[in-house]
Amino acid sequence: MSLSYNMDGFELVIAAGVSDEKLGKRRWTQVAASYLGWACSELEPLAGLRAVLDCFLRGRLASGEPGIVLGTEHDGLLVTVRQKEKVQFLQVCRVARGNTEAERYLSYFEASRLTIVVSKALQALAPKTIWGADTSLAPPQTKG
C-alpha cells in the first residue's frame, strides 16, 4: 500500500506493507517527506512544520522577523506572515547556503490542506509493530 502527495511544494510518500519472515510477520512503514526540497521525514521537523501551520491558522504566529522552522537561517525553512490587501499569507522560504532557493505564499485554505497532509505523515511515523508468537503472555501451565 502506498500514498503519495505532491502539492504546494510539499512532497509526501508513505509506503506500508507486511513482510513474511521466519520468526513471524512484520509490518513496515516508510515515510519520505520534503518541503521545498528540505527533507522532513523525521518527527521533529514534521512537528515543527505542523506547529507553525497551526499557529498561522489560529492567528498566533507573530509577524515581522522570519522565524526559523527547520534547520538554521542559512540552511533551512524560514517562515513569516505577510499581508496584502488585508489578507494574510504564510510566506515559507527555502534557504540554502544563505540564499533563497524557493518561496511559497500559503493562504488559509492552502495552510489547512497542508496541515492535514503533515498530520497524515506524523500519523504514519508509528512505532514498528511485530506480529508473531509471544510467549510472555502464555497462560500458566496447570497440572491435572
Which labels suit this protein?
single chain; 144 residues; alpha+beta; five-stranded antiparallel β-sheet; four-stranded antiparallel β-sheet; 2 helices
Q: Summed up, what is this model?
A:
This protein is α+β, with helices and mostly antiparallel strands and 144 residues long.
* Overall tally of structural domains: 1
How would you sum up the major sheet? 5 strands, antiparallel
Number of separate helices: 2
Task: State the order of secondary-structure elements, H for helix, E for strand.
Answer: EEEEHEEEEHE
Relative helix content: 10-25%
Give me the Rg, rounded: 21 Å
Question: Total number of β-strand segments?
Answer: 9
The CATH class turns out to be Alpha Beta
- Which stretches are low in confidence, meaning pLDDT under 50 for 5 or more residues running? none
Q: What is the molecular shape?
A: elongated
CATH topology: Secreted effector protein pipB2 fold
Strand content: over 45%
Main structural class: alpha+beta
CATH architecture classification: 2-Layer Sandwich
Termini separation comes to 49 Å
The mean pLDDT is: 83
Can you walk me through this structure?
The structure is a single chain. This protein is of the alpha+beta class. It has one domain (2-132): Secreted effector protein pipB2 fold, CATH 3.30.2450. The strands form two sheets. Strands 1, 2, 3, 4 and 9 form a five-stranded antiparallel sheet that branches. A four-stranded antiparallel sheet has the order 5-6-7-8. The termini are far apart. It contains two helices and nine strands. 19% of the residues are buried.
